[in-house]
């Protein structure tokens, strides 16, 4: 559906569409028209014009998310276009702003905010080349170091050293860009562009390097910390992290798989878990916590009860929770505030159906995202599920991949889902009757694709017809077989793959060595 453009925006498009003319004429453009021209240039992917606009930016603030978001002149939100041409032009324009600094009589740029850029699966920009979070981290770090080298070599005009610009960014660090980012952070006090890390994600990184770089990010400004794949952080390391670094503004914390494993707990470990809970309670802003694939059986209360702020997002997928854990969650003060809940990998119907529905009932007035993948939800349980979901009138996303539901049960469920007014995204499983008879759940990766694709397409068509007949074209229903899209994993999958192969090789070598010793 085409979005209406104001006459001002149409004029701005016409102006920037001739790049050569626009670049020559920028000196005659009023300061308050720069934001309008920036969005028009971004829409048309006019990289050279974007570069010159940023290089000559006359305002104190340059907030990419705000500039590309919904505006009076053009209501389409472009902040999910991570167009490589446009973003590279922004950053090189920023570099040249420092090198060819404007007249001191003009307003000086003080803050650049790159945090509003959203990485999404489908790109609408014409070039189709994206610049993800990792690449943005890499390019900004490279530009900061280049500026330092240039200023040192040229000993240029002292005016340039008067420039001090805070660049707010969500950093993404892996082994491959660690050295570059570390150097940029280490020398940031000397650089006119000051990297201010608002969110930090780390994948494929040695623990020692993670501890070193996280201290360089200025943790007291950090709002979001994600330690995700192949960072071997265990409970004792987490305790050291929380004891040695203060995170007063942290709102969101993601811990890697197997951070906790209560199966091998000693009395000292129990005390350590209590201490971690106490330390987390000092993070008074913390409202989002993800600790999937840890074994936390019977310990959720010990970890979460010290928190003074209610959680709005909780991911405890595949954490082997028991009845006591769910009972604590259902009766805790967190329950009434949960906007996003992931309980995947728990056999809800067999283990704690009534307690889970109590939790759902308490969070129903605010719940926006619910994920129940691989939860053994069968046909006999669908009516109960409908009953539990009925009060969740604010639900926007419901993901229930990997459950053994028949095509008939899915149709029944979809008919109900049409009545949830705010629901926009549904991820549903391949129907059980599309798989060979005797398939066991959870389905292993090798068998995941061995279903009757023609039958699945036919069922998917019927489900979409249910949405269509209920006038719910606004709802998107899909079956991403290998899970939801993760922009960070997508961007660094080559490095992730190489890391996994290396780990596998090392394990095989150790195994072979052990065998040789035995023989």
Automatic annotation (TrEMBL):
Keywords: Leucine-rich repeat, Repeat. Belongs to the PRAME family. LRRC14 subfamily. It comes from Scopus umbretta. This is Leucine-rich repeat-containing protein 14B. The keyword Repeat applies. The gene is Lrrc14b. InterPro entries: LRR_dom_sf (IPR032675), LRRC14/PRAME (IPR050694). PANTHER family: LEUCINE-RICH REPEAT-CONTAINING PROTEIN 14B, SIMILAR TO PREFERENTIALLY EXPRESSED ANTIGEN IN MELANOMA-LIKE 3. GO terms for cellular component: cytoplasm.
């Amino acid at each position: 559906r085409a979005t209406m453009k104001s006459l001002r925006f149409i004029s701005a498009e016409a102006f920037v569409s001739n790049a050569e003319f626009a670049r020559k004429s920028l000196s005659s453009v009023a300061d308050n028209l720069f934001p309008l021209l920036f969005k028009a240039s971004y829409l048309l992917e006019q990289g050279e014009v974007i570069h010159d606009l940023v290089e000559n930016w006359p305002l104190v603030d340059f907030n990419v998310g705000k500039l590309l978001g919904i505006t009076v002149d053009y209501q389409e939100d472009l902040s999910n276009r991570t167009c490589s041409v446009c973003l590279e032009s922004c950053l090189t324009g920023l570099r040249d702003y420092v090198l060819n600094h404007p007249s001191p009589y003009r307003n000086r740029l003080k803050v650049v905010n790159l945090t509003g850029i959203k990485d999404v699966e489908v790109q609408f920009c014409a070039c189709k080349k994206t610049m993800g979070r990792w690449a943005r981290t890499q390019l900004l770090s490279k530009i900061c170091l280049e500026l330092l080298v240039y200023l040192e070599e040229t000993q240029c005009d002292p005016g340039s050293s008067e420039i001090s610009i805070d660049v707010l960014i969500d950093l993404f660090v892996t082994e491959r860009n660690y050295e570059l980012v570390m150097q940029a952070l280490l020398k940031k006090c000397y650089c006119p562009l000051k990297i201010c890390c608002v969110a930090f994600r780390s994948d494929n990184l040695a623990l020692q390097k993670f501890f070193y770089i996280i201290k360089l990010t200025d943790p007291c400004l950090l709002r979001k910390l994600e330690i995700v794949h192949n960072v071997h952080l265990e409970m004792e390391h987490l305790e050291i992290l929380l004891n040695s670094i203060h995170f007063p503004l942290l709102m969101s914390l993601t811990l890697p798989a197997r951070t906790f494993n209560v199966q091998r707990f000693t009395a000292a470990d129990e005390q350590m878990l209590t201490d971690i809970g106490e330390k987390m309670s000092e993070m008074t802003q913390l409202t989002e916590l993800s600790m999937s694939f840890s074994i936390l059986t019977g310990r959720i209360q010990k970890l979460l009860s010290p928190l003074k702020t209610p959680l709005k997002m909780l991911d405890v997928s595949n954490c082997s929770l028991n009845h006591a854990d769910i009972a604590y969650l259902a009766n805790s003060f967190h329950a009434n505030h949960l906007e996003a809940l992931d309980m995947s990998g728990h056999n809800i119907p067999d283990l704690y159906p009534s307690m889970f529905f109590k939790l759902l009932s308490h969070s129903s007035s605010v719940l926006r995202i619910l994920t129940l993948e691989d939860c053994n939800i069968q046909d006999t349980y669908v009516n109960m599920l409908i009953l539990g979901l009925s009060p969740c009138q604010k639900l926007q996303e419901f993901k229930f991949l990997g459950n053994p539901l028949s095509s008939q049960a899915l149709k029944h469920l979809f008919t109900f889902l049409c009545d949830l007014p705010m629901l926009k995204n549904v991820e549903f499983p391949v129907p059980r009757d599309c798989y060979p008879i005797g398939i066991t759940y959870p389905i292993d990766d090798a068998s995941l694709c061995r279903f009757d694709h023609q039958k699945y397409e036919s069922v998917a068509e019927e489900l979409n017809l249910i949405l269509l007949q209920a006038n719910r074209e606004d709802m998107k229903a899909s079956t991403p077989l290998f899970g939801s899209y993760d922009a960070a994993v997508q961007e660094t999958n080559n490095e992730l793959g190489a890391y996994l192969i290396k780990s596998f090789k090392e394990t095989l070598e150790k195994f072979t060595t052990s065998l040789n010793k035995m023989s």
